[in-house]
Write a structure and sequence with these properties.
- By secondary structure, the protein is an alpha+beta fold.
- The protein has four domains: 76 residues, no CATH class; 113 residues, Potassium Channel Kv1.1, Chain A, CATH 3.30.710.10; 100 residues, Serine Threonine Protein Phosphatase 5, Tetratricopeptide repeat (Alpha Horseshoe); 286 residues, 6 Propeller (Neuraminidase), CATH 2.120.10.
- The chain has a four-stranded antiparallel β-sheet, with no helix packed on it. Strands 9-10-11-12 form a four-stranded antiparallel β-sheet, with no helix packed on it. Strands 13-14-15-16 form a four-stranded antiparallel β-sheet, with no helix packed on it.
- The longest helix is centred in the first third of the chain and has 18 residues.
- The protein is globular and about 90 Å long.
- 35% of the residues are buried.
């Protein structure tokens, strides 16, 4: 019966695809023979094919494939006639490749249907009390865990049943379905079990999808638990995102039940971070003492090491006296009293402050510079100043034109304070400027604010402690050492302590509660020296010199390091990069940029450095490079679309634009 069914099927197929045979030569031209010519020919071919199978496919008989072409031969291998040998007509090398691109798409749903019907299954997965049937070849092809199990000489490769321990049966069932369909539904109820199971089975794309799902749903109440779960799975992306959330929403997270149940090592880890978003160090002390009092009997022994995480010199003397020194748990600990004395010495002997190396004098600063990069002013290829503003979206990697500033400015200073962008001073092609304008990201408009006391181009700018600072620059006659501070509540600029050197085209940044002025020139000499301003005592102090003298450099901060890049040393346009460690007071060489860049704008965004524009000694540049500190390498980024060089750059958080 099976042979007849197969034969009848072949007849039907051949009769559809082959043309009718010509009339027979014996003169019998009745209509029946003519109408059935195709079927007769099909039957003849079937007989020849069957004969060839029975005789082992001898030469000159039946259906054969040679050299990538197919030929149907008559008895004796005669050429011509129906299906004759085409080797005399076609070249042996002629061939075509047919590719059915949708075959996998069509095939996998059929395999899933076959599995659902329990057909051809050759492996059973036992998960808890559940048994899941599947096809060994499909699992090996789509799930790395099973590929390793079934293709190596392991015991399970010869078994018909495999036991998976410690996994959720529903999650495994969904992942097996995913192996056949490429689809899986993730929700708040199953995300943890699916993520755990996909991690075990090494289905990394599903694990990554779960990680993204969790990362979008962090709250002050769940972030501590999600971070702990992700850490057990070595999911660094969720751990990093959770850490950033905890830092940004520290006070709200500290009120959660999960936070109160954290162990001592986790609490120390959090309280030690520079990036906590707090208004004052008093808030950190209050969170710490609240955690201790949640279980005083057990946790009080950890108070000395916890109090070391609180930056006591940053507390006000009144707070130390009224709240810290008066706390009975603190008074009863000798190490805690020593920390109080250290803080009091900091206030009583200000001349020693510059010599202090302890991290406890370093202000906390949550870096929220993950946002749009605003490029302001600058130059054309011909050196003309412009008023153009464009924005780079680092997520989409695209530039777009934004609202222009009110006047042309090159060599302009730019700073961001309270999520507002300031364009300060510069050169309009005719004169140096003292004017300042502010961009409101909500109304998307520029407005003028009070002008500086001095005209300044090539000026250094920084925002520190909710104030704007401008340092040095060039007024059209000489390089400056003067420094100005803008008080928003007063709406005006005031002269403060000048720098130790006259510095034009220096790198100026706010870093760990200080303002740094690095390199630059005075019109006669180019400097490798640097100095920093302590606003608490309104004084400048020198720091270690760079390895290379440079003016027209870029400067920016990532984490606890300060970077400088590019510039000009008087003879060479530079592509070298250095990083400064304030703890060791040492500059170290980093991987150089790909291009020489003087007048480069350097900015930190998304934990990377962006070197934007500049001048290479021949041309004003529109190109951009991006530096990843983790890899110590530079890569090309999309070039600016409307600027060439001499630009100012600031970053406004994504959710503010």
């Amino acid at each position: 019966m099976r042979e007849r069914t197969f034969a009848s099927s072949v007849v039907r197929v051949l009769s559809r695809v082959l043309p009718p045979s010509p009339p027979r030569r014996n003169g019998n031209n009745n209509s029946d023979n003519n109408n059935n010519g195709g079927d007769t020919f099909a039957v003849e071919l079937l007989c020849e094919f069957t004969l060839s199978l029975g005789q082992g496919g001898g030469s000159g008989e039946g259906l054969r494939v040679e050299g990538g072409s197919k030929s149907v031969e008559q008895e004796g291998g005669a050429a011509g006639g129906r299906g004759g040998d085409m080797s005399n007509v076609l070249e042996d090398t002629e061939h075509e490749v047919f590719h059915q691109e949708d075959l996998p798409l069509d095939g996998f749903p059929v395999m899933e249907q076959i599995r659902n019907e329990g057909l051809l299954c050759d492996i059973k997965l036992k998960v808890d009390e559940s048994v899941i049937q599947a096809h060994r070849i499909v699992l090996a092809a789509t799930i790395p865990y099973f590929h390793a199990m079934f293709t190596n000489d392991m015991i399970e490769s010869k078994q018909n049943e495999v036991t998976l321990k410690g996994l959720d049966p529903d999650a495994v069932e969904q992942l097996i379905n995913f192996a056949y369909t490429g689809r899986i539904t993730i929700n708040v109820n199953n995300v943890q079990s699916i993520m755990l199971s996909s991690s075990f089975l090494q289905i990394n794309k599903v694990k990554d999808a779960c990680a993204k799902f969790l990362g979008k749903r962090l709250t002050p109440d769940n972030v501590v638990g999600i971070r702990a779960f992700a850490d057990t799975l070595n999911c660094s992306s969720v751990v990093k995102e959770s850490d950033r959330f905890i830092q940004k929403h520290f006070l709200d997270v500290s009120k959660s039940e999960e936070f109160s149940q954290l162990g001592i090592s986790d609490i120390i880890n959090i309280l030690s971070r520079d990036e906590l978003a707090v208004d004052s160090e008093e808030q950190v002390f209050n969170v710490m003492i609240k955690w201790v009092k949640k279980d005083t009997q057990i946790r009080c022994i950890h108070l000395p090491e916890l109090l070391q995480c609180v930056r006591m010199p940053l507390l006000t003397p009144q707070f130390i006296t009224d709240y810290v020194a008066s706390e009975i748990l603190v008074r009863s600990s000798h190490p805690c009293r020593d920390l109080i004395d250290e803080a009091r010495d900091y206030f009583l002997i200000p001349e020693r402050r510059p010599l202090s190396k302890t991290f406890r004098i370093r202000p906390r600063c949550f870096d929220d510079t993950v946002g749009y990069m605003f490029v302001v002013g600058g130059l054309t290829k011909t050196g003309d100043s412009v008023s153009t503003v464009e924005i780079f979206d680092p997520i989409q990697e695209q530039w777009r034109i934004a609202e222009a500033i009110t006047m042309q400015r090159s060599r302009v200073g730019v700073a961001v304070m309270k999520k507002k962008l300031f364009a300060i001073g510069g050169f309009n092609g005719t004169e140096r400027l003292s004017t300042v304008e502010m961009y409101d990201s909500v109304t998307k408009t520029w407005s003028k604010i009070a002008s500086m006391r001095c005209k300044r181009s090539a000026v250094g700018c920084a925002a520190l402690n909710d104030k704007l600072y401008t340092a040095g620059g060039y007024d059209g006659n000489s390089s400056l050492n003067t420094v100005e501070c803008f008080y928003p509540e007063r709406g005006d600029w005031f002269m403060i302590t000048p720098m130790m050197k006259h510095r034009s085209a220096a790198g100026v940044v706010a870093f760990q509660g200080f303002m740094y002025a690095i390199g630059g020139h005075d019109g006669l000499s180019i400097f490798d020296s640097a100095e920093r301003f302590d606003p608490s005592i309104s004084a400048w102090h020198p720091i270690a010199s760079m390895n290379t003298k440079r003016c027209r450099l870029g400067a920016a901060v990532i984490g606890d390091k300060l970077y400088v890049a590019g510039g000009y040393d008087g003879a060479t346009f530079l592509r070298s990069v250095e990083v400064y460690d304030p703890i060791t007071d040492v500059w170290t060489e980093c991987s150089p940029m790909k291009m020489m860049r003087s007048r480069v704008a350097l900015v930190a965004n998304m934990d990377k450095l962006w070197a934007i524009g500049g001048y290479d000694g021949v041309t004003n540049l529109s190109s951009v490079e991006c530096y990843d500190p983790a890899k110590n390498e530079w890569t090309d980024a999309p070039p600016m679309c409307a600027h060439e060089g001499g630009v100012g750059v600031g970053v406004i958080p994504l959710d503010c634009v």
